[in-house]
Amino acid sequence: MLDRRRFLTLSSLAGLIPPLSFGLAKPAISTNKGNAPTPVPSITEPSANRPFVISTWNQPKANAAAQAALNKGGSALDAVEAGVKVPEADPEDMSVGYGGRPDRDGHVTLDACIMDEKGNAGSVTFLEHIKHPISVARAVMEKSPHVMLSGEGALAFALANGFKKESLLTPKAEKEWREWLKTAKYKPVANIERHDTIGMLAIDSKGNISGACTTSGLAYKMRGRVGDSPIIGAGLFVDNEFGGACATGLGELVMRTCGSFLVVELMRQGRTPQQACEEAALRIVKKQDFTDIQVGFLAVNKQGEYGAFSIQTGFNYTMTLNKVTQVIDAKSYLK
Ligand code: SD4
């Protein structure tokens, strides 16, 4: 008989289905009857799936960069930073970093956050002119006493820390925006087809989990609009004892439900990553008119089990384990 660890590794490698429900997570149930707090048991069994990288959407190059960082002995934190920098620098990726679609006034404004295995977090919102907001977020985490810097303050911090000021609006993005201006009546849109935000989770050789999330946000948003991606607990959350989660799609809905925190919390309560993502998405579906919006969640737990779920079809994610990368279609509420 295959032992469980080997079975997990093989089933992931085979790429037939994501390991959905092995019931490994120990339920964190308090049996305390009195007033004294009962310690919640943590998952101590390390992941069999490691090093491991998973990211939202079709991002093999980003995963390769993350994997390369892990192969060099880098931490999960190094990996997720290196990974998401790939789409940030890619002008063809029009939802992240350089080349991202601007707000309705033509400004590219970026949101990003990062979280390590110790629960440290850094974030920038409404940041302009810096190609790698994820690295500024990491600098906020490591070099400032704060978690989040925004707008002009974030830019000043970035410049003071050696980041270069540059124009992020590419001719292609500008042209599209000018076309949009002709017909859109200046109305911000939440177009379900325009999502590519990268959220990435990695497990390093020590079994530690970190995560990163970076985006230019909704295309043609109102100036100053900040989405879920830089909000710890909304676009990203990592609890190294249990797992990590990230979100993509219409950030307003993810923020209202503390989406990524909810997914991790559900894993803490014993759900598999797949079950946790489904439950978090269904909470949105229950309360909202979801016909025209997309939200997707992606999660991994401490054992390296993973799962994903979205409201609309079309959400996929990229998984890299043992040098094998697969792009996998997530299950969705609407078929
Ligand atoms: C936002 N959640 O700004 C982001 C957009 C996104 O793929 O995920 N796009 O609301």
Q: How would you summarize what this structure contains?
A:
The protein is α+β, with helices and mostly antiparallel strands and 335 residues long.
CATH architecture name? 4-Layer Sandwich
Number of domains: 1
Distance between the termini: 36 Å
SSE series: HEHHEEHEHHEEEEHHHEEEEE
Q: Look at the structure and name the CATH superfamily.
A: (Glycosyl)asparaginase
Overall helicity: 25-40%
User: Are any ligands bound, and if so which?
Assistant: N-hydroxy-L-asparagine
Main sheet specs: 8 strands, mixed
Q: How many E-type strands?
A: 13
Principal-axis shape:
globular
The radius of gyration is 19 Å
Helix/strand/pairing category? alpha+beta
Strands of the widest sheet, in order across it, are 4-3-2-6-5-1-11-12
Structural account:
The chain has 335 residues and is of the alpha+beta class. It has one domain (49-332): (Glycosyl)asparaginase (Glutamine Phosphoribosylpyrophosphate, subunit 1, domain 1, 4-Layer Sandwich), CATH 3.60.20.30. 30% of the residues lie in helices and 21% in strands. The chain has helices at residues 4-14, 60-71, 76-89, 133-143, 151-160, 171-183, 251-256, 259-268, 273-287; strands at residues 52-56, 110-115, 121-127, 148-150, 198-203, 209-215, 236-239, 243-249, 295-301, 306-310, 316-321, 324-329, 331-332. An eight-stranded mixed β-sheet has the order 4-3-2-6-5-1-11-12. A five-stranded mixed β-sheet has the order 7-8-9-10-13. Strand 3 (121-127), helix 4 and strand 4 form a beta-alpha-beta unit. It is globular, with a radius of gyration of 19 Å. The structure holds N-hydroxy-L-asparagine (SD4). N-hydroxy-L-asparagine is lined by residues 95, 195-197, 215, 217-218, 227-229, 248-251.
